[in-house]
Design brief:
Blueprint lengths: L1 H30 L8 H12 L4 H16 L5 H22 L8 H21 L6 H13 L3 H20 L1 H22 L5 E8 L2 H12 L4 E7 L3 E10 L4 H11 L4 E7 L20
Antiparallel strand pairs: 1-3, 1-4, 2-3
Helix pairs in contact: 1-4, 1-5, 2-3, 2-7, 3-4, 3-6, 5-8, 6-7, 7-8, 9-10
């Protein structure tokens, strides 16, 4: 049991390292030589790097620190640890790949291949419980407090950044950057299974109370508790919970730590109608809907 958890944790950090390195390779070898920006704080770092002599790797890490501190205590500790590790690895990798020969100076090739490779790298990081950009941390917090969609919030941030880049480097660079962002997002969809879609989890378990309480405590999400009956297994309790893609990893951790025999089905939610109650909207009387 402990060996299995240790192996999963080690594997996660190996994949975080690989994902961060792949993303850094895409940035330094394809995007930076053509002054094409990634989104979020990485895009801001590229702009500052072009206007100053400050190293890109140092900029990306320093700019992310305040967002990690804001997220600490409000988002899962493991998510913050993995994100900090991913960001540090990403910053170091940027400096390593900086000395390599640029892959291309053709804008179309840079957008196409840079976007695809970047999507693979970012997707691996997110899939294994981390993130590379602090704007995603803020988007998650805004989602929990105001129910703003994570993907749309990140997109708004990025549009503002690309507009700023257009003023500084020309609007052709802004358009190339926006195209890169959309390519990256689509590739990330394949790697991570959905960048901005809300997820629904249906959990069939014998430990409904413990799991629902832990979901409430760690994710701030309430659950709907239903009674069910299996053809062979008999009476069961079914939990239904709506959450974001960033919270899927933590949900899996919760379930594995309480009931490894639980049956879990996770699906995409195309639209939510009505109010979705969260922790900050409830009196502290227990997780109910």
């Amino acid at each position: 049991m402990r060996n299995s958890k240790a192996f999963i944790t080690i594997f996660d950090f190996v994949m975080l390292t690989l994902g961060a390195a792949i993303a850094a390779f895409a940035i330094e070898s394809f995007l930076v030589p053509c002054t094409i920006l990634d989104g979020g704080l990485i895009g801001i770092s590229i702009m500052i790097n072009n206007l100053t002599v400050v190293k890109l790797g140092l900029l990306t890490f320093l700019l992310n620190i305040p967002f990690l501190l804001i997220g600490a205590g409000r988002i899962g500790k493991l998510f913050i640890v993995k994100s900090a590790y991913s960001m540090l690895t990403f910053s170091i990798s940027l400096e390593i790949f900086k000395s390599m020969i640029n892959a291309t100076h053709d804008y179309l090739l840079a957008v196409s291949f840079g976007g695809v490779i970047l999507g693979i790298g970012v997707g691996l990081v997110i899939k294994h419980g981390g993130c590379l950009d602090g704007t995603e941390t803020i988007a998650i917090l805004l989602n929990r407090k105001y129910n703003l969609p994570v993907g749309q919030t990140v997109l708004i941030f990025n549009i503002l950044i690309y507009a700023m880049a257009g003023c500084l480097f020309g609007f052709d660079r802004a358009m190339y950057s926006l195209l890169t962002y959309f390519i990256t997002s689509k590739v990330l969809d394949v790697v991570e299974s959905g960048i901005d879609q809300t997820k629904a989890a249906m959990i069939i378990t014998n430990d409904a109370e413990d799991i629902s309480n832990m979901i409430y405590q760690r994710l701030g999400r309430t659950v709907t508790i239903m009674e069910g009956e299996g053809l062979v297994s008999g009476k069961k309790v079914v939990l239904y919970c709506v959450l974001t893609r960033f919270e899927i990893y933590t949900l899996k951790e919760i379930i594995n730590s309480i009931d490894q025999s639980a049956f879990v089905a996770i699906s995409d939610v195309s639209e939510i109608i009505g109010n979705h109650i969260k922790k900050n909207e409830l009196l502290m009387t227990g997780p109910k809907e």
